[in-house]
Structures are given as structure tokens and as C-alpha cells.
Automatic annotation (TrEMBL):
Gene3D superfamilies: Glutaredoxin. It holds the Pfam family Glrx-like. It comes from the Bacteria. It comes from Rivihabitans pingtungensis. InterPro entries: Glutaredoxin-like (IPR008554), Thioredoxin-like_sf (IPR036249). This is Glutaredoxin.
Amino acid sequence: MHLTLYFREYCSLCHAMRDALRPYQQQHGFTLEVIDVDNDPALVERFDELVPVLMHGDTEICHYHLDAARLDAVLAEIG
């Protein structure tokens, strides 16, 4: 299982979501790729003020804050 977190280094919500994902990562064993949107103009255009955005492939799981219920549902589906 692989999830992607679109992130900004200076964003406190981004850091909070990354930290909140750690227990889920330990429990479910998924890999988490953290991508700083500011390193790619196309990602800035796509996500800009939505960060943090947690994705599984092309499917958005949540943005701004971790939606634990939605994450649990996605992990159960792909697990």
C-alpha cells in the first residue's frame, strides 16, 4: 500500500497530518511519500491552498485535516 501526502514545509497543518499518519502507518504498514508541492509548479497549480492533501493514487482521501474515518475506509478497501 502506498499513500502520498502533498505537503508544504512551512505549513503547520501539513506537519500535523504527517504526524497523525504515523500510528496508521505503523498499524497498516503502508508507505507514505511526502511531496513538497512548492518544488513543482504543476503541483502548486493543482493543490495550492488545499495542502495538506492525502492521496491514494488519484483518489483524494482528505485535505486540511486527517479524516480518520475516511482513511480507515480506504485502508480497509485497499488492504
